[in-house]
Amino acid sequence: MSSTPNKALVVLTCIDARLQPEVFLGLEIGDAHVIRNAGGRATDDALRSLIISAQLLGTRECMVIHHTDCGMTTFTNDDLWSKLEAETGTSAAAIDFLPISDVEASARDDALAIRANPFLPPGFAVTAWIYDVRTARLRQVADG
After folding, report:
1. Are 41 and 110 spatial neighbours (Cβ–Cβ below 8 Å)?
2. What's the rounded Cα separation, in Å, for the pair 64 and 62?
3. pTM score
4. How high is the mean pLDDT of the chain?
5. Residue range 86-132, pLDDT digits in tens
6. In what order do the strands lie in the sheet with 137-141?
7. Of 95, 118, 120, 144, which is the most exposed, with the fewest CB atoms less than 10 Å away?
8. C-alpha pair distances (Å), 96 with each of 26, 48, 74, 86
9. How confident is the model at residue 144 (pLDDT cuts 50, 70, 90)?
């Protein structure tokens, strides 16, 4: 089996255990690369993986999928910094945990950040989506 996905698709989504992109996108093993992190954010490491996926493994489309009821909407950096310092005695203020205040805006912003990356090939398609964990429906976020 090739490491190049059958559908030339890469998905960036959240680590939330309720999300099963292979299921709700109807993917089979080998159809897509799936990159997951807290919030499904376009972090430096996610971008590193996207660049490798596109430049070395032939993906040509990225779906950024954020979701309703995301745990990343339940705290601020200040909240987590305070908690971590209280529990460990060490400041985590240098870490931006990328909390989310608006899932639609965050999905759109992450898609824009990916599109702006100069190391992705011309024509690399990036779309933003919201998965509703209650209805299991996926809807596209309009560019704004």
Report:
1. yes
2. 6
3. 0.95
4. 96
5. 999 999 999 999 999 999 999 999 999 999 999 999 999 999 999 99
6. 32-37, 9-14, 61-67, 125-132, 137-141
7. 118
8. 34, 18, 15, 18
9. low
Length of the chain counted residue by residue: 144
Q: Is 34 left (phi over 0), alpha (psi -120 to 50) or beta?
A: beta
CA distances from residue 86 to 67, 75, 77, 79, 105 in whole angstroms, order as listed: 30, 16, 14, 11, 31
d(CA 115, CA 48) in angstroms, rounded, equals 13
In terms of Cα–Cα distance, which of 2, 8, 4, 12 is closest to 117? Answer: 12
- pLDDT (0 to 100) of residue 3: 80
Q: Which two tokens stand for residue 18?
A: 């309720």
Can you say whether the dihedral through the CA atoms of 27, 98, 141, 128 is positive or negative? negative
- Residue ranges of E strands in the chain: 9-14, 32-37, 61-67, 125-132, 137-141
